[in-house]
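Following the same procedure, backbone shapes were mapped to integers, yielding the entry below.
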Amino acid sequence: MNRICATLAACIWATNVSFAAPMESDTIVFRMIFQDFRDQPYPDETTRSHLADAIANFWHDFDSKIPRNSPAIAEWLTKELNTSDLARLNRVTSTEEYALMQLSASTDACLSDSDLLKRSVGQQPLLEMYAWLRMTDCYANPHATETYLKQAKLSAGLYEGPVTMVHATALHSLIAGKIANAIVQQQR
């Protein structure tokens, strides 16, 4: 490939045809980051609002792909996790059911945070900044998300399979950089 890729994710995505295509909602967020925000040192409210909508759509899509454990399995997990027996803890934390529990909890929080973000863009700068920073928690540990997706047999990783999160690292950086700077600049 004769061009330089902006990130490792972009390189993998652009050059490796053997990978399954990322989820459409993931692709939309990824493209927005590298197209809509590329030439904007201080992204305006409209651009931030469109990104917030795309992020919320991503989390709703992601959530729809995460099966939930039955109440009986949830009860079993609680019982198994409520022990000091390390062998039992190791066994239960390596199960698909445990991975689904972790993904579900994470996804529920990210759905809530993305809905808060959608309502906060363009409101008081401090509220909007708070909402964006809450979103960073959804992207703070992509390795754990990848591990749980693989453990639950839902995906081959963040960059391939039926459940992807190619935009994770790039969005985390965008929020901590350009978006935070835009909100601070807006205050001046």
Remarks:
- Confidence is low (pLDDT under 50) at residues 1-19.
- The chain has nine helices and no strands.
- Residues 96-120 form the longest helix (25 residues).
